[in-house]
Amino acid sequence: MNKFKARECPACQEGTIDMRNIRGLAVPFRDEPAVVIDEDLIVPRCDNCGEILLNEKLAAAYDAVAQQSYERQRITQQKEEIEKALSALRVNQSELETLLGVSQGYVSKLMRGEKVTSATTVRFLHVLSSDPPRAVRSLAEIASLDRELLSRLERAQPVRR
Amino acid sequence: MIMQARSCSATEAVAFARVAVLSLSADCFSETVRMARDAEADVYGKVIDGMPWYIKLRADGDGVDLLSCHLPDRDIKTRGGVVSCTVRPGRGR
C-alpha cells in the first residue's frame, strides 16, 4: 500500500511531490553524471522541478536499482571503448593493459563483464582511440613505453565515431 | 544535488545530509526566508570537506524538514562570515 501523501515540493514550491516511476530517467550516480534507470523505480518526485526526496529506506532501494543500471551501462560502455581502442591502436589486450597501467588480464575481465571499471578508465580509453598519436605521445611523457610499441602507436589512426 | 556534487550513492547522500544538518551552528545561519503560504525557512551556509553548501531548513510540528542542500550559486553571508560559492576542495574556506 502506498502510504506516501502527495504534497507541495519543498524545493520549488510550485510542483507536487508524489510517488512516481523514474524508469528511463537519467540520474547522477557515483562517478557517472547520467545513469539511465532501466528498471521500475518508484520514488517521491516533483512533477515540476524533478526533485527526488529520499530517506534512508528509499535511498537503499534507489541505490539497489541505480547500481544495477550503472553496472549494465558501464559494462556496455567499457566493452565498446575497449573494442575501439584495440582497433584504433592496433594493439592486443596485453599491450592495451600496459598503456592503461592495469594488471594483466584486466582488459579481458572488462570485456567479459566480470569487472566494472571506473569512469576515468572509460574516458581514458575514449581519448586513446580518439587521437592515438597525440594521446600516446602524452602518455610516453609519464610512462615508460616499449620503443617498438610507441613507434607503432605513433602511426595509429583515430576511430571514426 | 548531493549525489552529483559528491559523486556518491543515494545512501551516502542521505547520510551526508544528516551529518551536514547536525553540524550546523549559529555561526552558519544566514537568513530566514518567506516561502509559499507564509511558511518560513532558515538558510545556512557552511563549508564541508572543502566545498560550500547552501542548506535550507524548515521546522514544523513534526520536526525539521531539509528543503535544500546543494552547492550555492552565489556567496552566502552568514553570522560567522561569508561562505564563498567559489570555494572548492583543497582551497579551504
How many structurally independent domains of chain A?
2
CATH class category name of chain B: Alpha Beta
Strand residues, percent of chain B: 35-45%
* Average residue-wise pLDDT of chain B: 88
Helix content of chain A: 40-55%
Structural class of chain B: alpha+beta
What is the rounded distance between the termini of chain B? 21 Å
| Biggest chain pair interface | A-B, 20 and 15 residues
Shape of chain B: globular
Shape of chain A: elongated
Q: What is the name of the CATH topology of chain B?
A: YaeB-like fold
Determine the mean pLDDT of chain A.
90
What ranges of chain A have pLDDT less than 50 throughout 5 or more consecutive residues? Answer: none
Helical run tally of chain B: 2
Strand order within the widest sheet of chain B?
1-2-3-4
Main sheet record of chain A: 3 strands, antiparallel
SS summary, helix count of chain A: 6
The low-pLDDT segments of chain B are none
Descriptive overview:
The complex is a heterodimer of chains A (161) and B (93). Chain A has 161 residues and is α+β, with helices and mostly antiparallel strands. Chain A has two domains: 15-71, Roll (Ubiquitin-like (UB roll)); 74-154, no CATH class. Chain A is built from six helices and five strands, in the order E-E-E-E-E-H-H-H-H-H-H. Chain A has helices at residues 56-89, 93-100, 106-112, 119-130, 132-142, 147-154; strands spanning 7-8, 16-21, 26-29, 32-36, 42-46. In chain A, the strands form two sheets. Chain A has a three-stranded antiparallel sheet with strand order 1-2-5, with no helix packed on it. Chain A has a two-stranded antiparallel sheet with strand order 3-4. In chain A, strand 3 and strand 4 (32-36) form a beta hairpin. In chain A, helix 1 packs across helix 3 and helix 4 crosses helix 5. The mean pLDDT of chain A is 90. Chain B has 93 residues and is an alpha+beta fold. Chain B has a single domain (2-83), classed as YaeB-like fold (2-Layer Sandwich). Helices cover 19% and strands 42% of the residues of chain B. Chain B is built from two helices and six strands; from the N terminus they run ααββββββ. Chain B has a four-stranded antiparallel sheet, with helices on one face. A two-stranded antiparallel sheet of chain B has the order 5-6. In chain B, strand 2 and strand 3 form a beta hairpin. The longest helix of chain B is centred in the N-terminal third of the chain and has 13 residues, at 10-22. In chain B, 24% of the residues are buried. The mean pLDDT of chain B is 88. Classes of the chains: A alpha+beta (161), B alpha+beta (93). Chain A binds chain B through residues 8, 10-11, 13, 27-31, 33, 54-56, 58-60, 62-63, 66-67, and chain B through 3-4, 7-11, 13-14, 35-36, 58, 65, 67-68.
